[in-house]
Amino acid sequence: MTVQNFANHKRNVAGFHYLLGAMLILGLIVSAVNVVMQWHTANLMSALLIMLLFGCCLLMGLFVRIFPLKAQDRAIRAEEGLRYFILTRKPLDSRLTIAQIAALRFAPDAELIPLMERVIAENLSASEIKQAIKNWRADHHRV
């Protein structure tokens, strides 16, 4: 397994992110054109149902991706909250966003506390946090 770092930590599944997304969007567009073309014919109901089906599939594709990410965010918040509590005996600062907490998970224990203080003081973005990490702590279990 390759060493994970800022440059290669993002995961994109080409079949899902690009192929399926493009096919669903194209199908929705083509079905909308078909509805317009069938507007005054007996085939209008079929054309509308096909467009509705593509719209439903597009929404399902989005939700299939969003729902696991929300569950993962909750797990990351709990894991990082516990890790921070073990290191400091204090809860996570409530000013931290989930994006910041998720970015901080890549920081090893030795870098976490000073980096978290910097994040709170400077309100760093997730990308800035990840770039500030010197010794990357890999996360191979993400969705």
UniProtKB/TrEMBL annotation:
Q: Which UniProt keywords apply?
A: Membrane, Transmembrane, Transmembrane helix
Q: Which InterPro entries does this UniProt record tie to the protein?
A: DUF6526
**UniProt keyword Membrane present:** yes
Transmembrane segments in this chain: where? 18-39, 45-67
Name this polypeptide is given = Uncharacterized protein
